[in-house]
Design goal:
Order of helices and strands: HHHHHHHHHHHHHHHHH
Oligomer: single chain
Helix content: 55-70%
Radius of gyration: 24 Å
Structural class: mainly alpha
Strand content: under 5%
């Protein structure tokens, strides 16, 4: 027996120091959290470019009145697929990529809890993405029911709707596995001495996000499964002809959909909460209140879903409840914004690229928050519902929120990932032109919405022409900047071109990730690190 144990120990020792796999095997069979994080980030950027091309198709059509580029049916396919791909294919996987890379480094864990499941949850996404992309080539074209997939339209679509439902099921399974992995890793694998209330904010926001995912992805699965059985198995959940109710679909969908928007923004809050203290050279103001605010946002997100449905004829009592509950979410969100500003207040601030993205995030995300507060009011929303005002609002939170934070996180942590510094000048060009083009794209859409221009229309009256032209020009500029980012920032970093990054490129950055060399070695923390009292430094 002892011989067997000795052999096992020797084998374990060999395993600790085995060479990292190389070539395609390294990626296909990846179980290392860093490699899987990289795969997620590459996948999400490819999907981001794909979704972006669809968006540019939409904006090309809307450049001037009349039908120029696509017919209305294809236009609706573009809007639907743009939404699905950006939400499920770009933003969510990008944040999971950050989680895979950074959570083990930040809590002193050797890897994610379930390494093989981690691999599986990534590779599930690839066929799902292929199915979504291929739906354009199916009879009748891609789904054209809007990304919300409302009945009764979904009950009338061609076979691509079944493909989209299948793809969403697979993506949902991937998300649930990723969330389980993140929760178990954070709760069970923190280094000794790192209590929950000493964890970096990024880990906190992801822990809460992972619980949200596990709570709401099955609700989406239920909604689309009911759609599937309505389509093929004679049920009538949403078909009024058989006694069903299309509005019930909206309730089920938005019970998923509203927490989903917080799934897309909470990890962004975490990234910004890492960047701002580092470049303000101060500790994050009100850490405890930030944790509680994040949890409050998550809990409140479950009781506000029907603010998407003020125009469905719900009773005034229901409208009032959802209106006040929605306005309440502004309180913990405001706590976060004020805490970020208080962190910067009287700090010794410098504006390297990550800080520019973080400050830009606060500015534009707060604008998106205010327009959300306006839309939360039932009498106003009944005028603005399904107009471009709503499009402007959620792009200010999703693009200027999630995407800006992702860019900030890339510039902040890329030196640790790659071992080289990105070009500061190119990073700043990317930031300023993206910020300017973003606002040129989406700010005019507030006015279009206030003037009554509806969403998802391929054509419009002459009075909307000028603002649409400005918006389309901004969209092409913004798209061009992301190609610039790929060619002149990301690729040089991936190829290791640039000056060598020090272990701690940002002097005031705190956290365990800055205690390992740059680039981070393939295996980190094979023995758990011993932490100082603040749980941000390794002793010895």
């Amino acid at each position: 027996m002892s011989a067997v144990l000795d052999h096992h120990d020797a084998h374990a020792h060999d395993h600790d120091h085995h060479h990292a796999p190389t070539g395609w095997r390294r990626w296909v069979y990846a179980t290392n959290h860093k490699d899987i994080g990289t795969l997620y980030l590459i996948f999400s950027f490819v999907m981001f470019l794909f979704g972006g091309v669809l968006a540019l198709g939409i904006r090309a059509e809307l450049f001037q009145p009349g039908l120029q580029v696509v017919n209305p049916e294809l236009f609706n396919q573009f809007t639907t697929m743009h939404g699905l791909i950006m939400v499920f294919g770009a933003i969510m996987p990008a944040f999971v990529g950050f989680a895979n890379w950074m959570i083990p480094l930040q809590i002193g864990a050797s890897d994610m809890a379930f390494a093989r499941m981690n691999n599986f949850s990534f590779w599930l996404m690839v066929p799902a993405a292929i199915i979504l992309a291929a739906s354009f080539f199916m009879p009748g074209g891609a789904p054209a029911a809007g990304w919300t997939l409302y009945a009764p339209l979904t009950l009338q679509m061609g076979p691509s709707m079944d493909a989209a439902i299948f793809a969403l099921h697979i993506l949902g399974a991937s998300s649930i596995m990723g969330a389980i992995n993140i929760i178990v890793t954070i709760l069970n694998m923190r280094a000794p001495g790192m209590t929950l209330m000493k964890m970096p904010m990024f880990c906190w926001t992801w822990l809460i996000t992972a619980y949200l995912l596990i709570a709401v992805i099955p609700v989406l699965a239920g909604a689309i499964t009911m759609t599937l059985t309505d389509r093929h198995f004679g049920t009538a959940f949403f078909n009024p002809a058989g006694g069903g109710d299309p509005v019930m679909y909206q309730h089920i969908f938005w019970f998923f959909g509203h927490p989903e928007v917080y799934i897309l923004i909470l990890p962004a809050f975490g990234i910004v909460s890492q960047i701002i203290p580092a470049f303000s050279r101060k500790k994050l103001f009100g850490y405890t209140s930030m944790v509680y605010a994040t949890a409050s946002i998550a809990i409140l997100s479950f009781i506000v879903w029907a603010h998407h449905m003020y125009t469905t004829g719900m009773p005034v009592t229901g409208q009032l409840f959802f209106m006040y509950a929605t306005m309440l979410i502004a309180v913990p969100t405001g706590v976060k914004v004020f805490n970020w500003i208080a962190t910067m207040w009287k700090g010794s601030m410098t504006f390297e690229t990550p800080m520019l993205w973080a400050v830009g995030f606060i500015f534009v995300f707060t604008m998106g928050g205010f327009t959300g507060l306006i839309l939360s009011m039932a009498p106003l929303d009944q005028q603005l519902h399904d107009t471009y005002y709503v499009v402007a609002h959620f792009h200010y939170t999703m693009v200027a929120g999630s995407l800006f934070a992702l860019f900030g996180g890339f510039y902040y942590w890329a030196p640790k990932w790659s071992g080289v510094m990105y070009s500061e000048v190119r990073g700043k060009i990317h930031f300023w032109l993206s910020l300017i083009f973003f606002n040129i794209t989406f700010f005019p859409q507030h006015f279009l919405g206030l003037a009554g221009m509806p969403r998802r229309y391929a054509d419009y009256p002459m009075q909307f022409a000028d603002f649409n032209m400005i918006s389309s020009i901004g969209a092409f500029g913004f798209g061009l900047m992301q190609v610039y980012f790929l060619l002149f920032v990301v690729l040089p970093v991936m190829r290791g071109r640039g000056e060598k990054a020090p272990q701690k490129p940002w002097e005031a950055a705190e956290g365990l990730e800055w205690e390992v060399p740059s680039p981070a070695p393939h295996h980190t923390y094979e023995t758990p690190p011993k932490l100082d009292a603040s749980a941000t430094r390794v002793i010895g």
